[in-house]
Design brief:
Distance between the termini: 48 Å
Order of helices and strands: HHHHHHHHH
Number of domains: 1
Radius of gyration: 18 Å
Length: about 180
Amino acid sequence: MLDSLISRFGLLAILIGSALEGEPFSIAGGILAHQRLVPLWGTMAVAIGGAWLIDQFWFFVGRSFRSHPRVQAMAQRPGFSRSLTLFERNPRRFIVFFRFAYGLRIVAPLAIGTTRVPRFQFMRVSAAAAIVWGTGYSLVGFLFGRTIAPWVGHNAPIIFVIGAILVIAPMVLLNYRRRVPAEQE
């Protein structure tokens, strides 16, 4: 039953997970592809799509809402100014490489969105980065799946679900805690 659920919804989970969390879901997708629960080409495609779409989303937020208080608050973070400094040195290279830099995946496209870089240039360059990123991490998972297959066996779907829960549950809890104000003493 779990195998059929993963076969049916695995690519959607990899798409969403690749957008929200990144590497763990792309690698897990490659492992599932090795187990033949999802196709490898599909895993790569949705990992690429999730990465590219989330970059476009944050770029759009930076471009469209640069004077919004939340974007202004993000602009006060050290990663924002660091992103702009690195971006100004070599814009195209930075657009490619922020995808691989942990901790910059939200703030970097948001910061780039506040600059004058043309939208279509950002779309093209970030697409190239997403292709390398999604293909690479999916293949890492696929090859890693081959290495761990003798130890994991058919438990990979269960490990994937447990891993997804361990990643998603803290995100939901954090989001809930942000929305519910702390009780006043």
